[in-house]
Amino acid sequence: MSLFVRIRQLFRALLFYAGFGIIVVVSSFICCVFAFLPFPLLQRITTYGNRLILGWLWVVCNIDVKVTGEENIPDGPCVILSNHQSTWDGFFMQWFFQPASMILKRELLWIPIFGWSLYFMRPIAIERNNPAAAFRSILKHGQRRLMEGNRIVIYPEGTRGNPDKLSGFKSSGAAIAKKACVDILPIAHDAGKYWLHHSFLKQSGTIRLHIGPVINSAFGSPRDLTKQARDWIESAL
């Protein structure tokens, strides 16, 4: 990579994060101010900031997204199982699949303004250093969110993975789906190739996100259902 290209990437990244920070602060503040609104409306307003971030990413870093399989999205609640590669997927998933509740680290809720806005988005906050407690929390609050009509977005790998290889999948997402009698929706994407996890710089290109056919949670154990989802995601990458 030439020095000129490197400098250009650095400039683009700096410009992107400047706008990113402003959008996050403003949208988080708006969410906190209008927290009294009904949840679907509040999330629609708040996640417009997510859409602005994705648009700013395209304008500054020339990173866009192509989605296939939208016809597979069920009308009602479901559990979305997706591979996890970068910060991008959190912003995209919550906007694109709304009304959606995300699984996230409890510590994020402690961040002033931003964390408070996350709280109002009805996430499922877990203690990552206590797997047993995290599993119980996911099962308990996951069913409640599904009954409220939300979709639940879960990253079964547990943490951001390598763009070229899937890690092992935990079965908590499938367990929620089976207990609540809702479908599982597998998602595969390659965002980690462009919004890199361990790099400040961004790579121009098109993120490809594939939405798979739903998996009926009535047929199979949580482990079997998780394997079906993982096999499809792996084949789609």
Overall structural class, as computed from helix and strand content, comes to alpha/beta
Q: What fold name goes in the CATH topology slot?
A: Glycerol-3-phosphate (1)-acyltransferase
How many helices? The count is 8
Distance between the termini: 26 Å
Physical arrangement of strands within the biggest beta sheet:
1-7-6-2-5-3-4
Total domains? 1
Give the C-alpha Rg: 18 Å
Low-confidence parts: none
Task: Indicate the proportion of strand residues.
Answer: 15-25%
Q: What is the mean pLDDT?
A: 90
One letter per element, helices H and strands E, the order comes to HHHEEHEHEHEHEEH
Q: Biggest β-sheet, characterized?
A: 7 strands, mixed
**Under the CATH scheme, which architecture would be assigned?**
3-Layer(aba) Sandwich
CATH class: Alpha Beta
Oligomerization state of this entry?
single chain
Note down, in words, how this protein is organized.
- 46% of the residues lie in helices and 15% in strands.
- The chain is an alpha/beta fold and 237 residues long.
- It has a single domain (3-236), classed as Glycerol-3-phosphate (1)-acyltransferase.
- The radius of gyration is 18 Å and the shape is globular.
- The two termini are 26 Å apart.
- The relative contact order is 0.17.
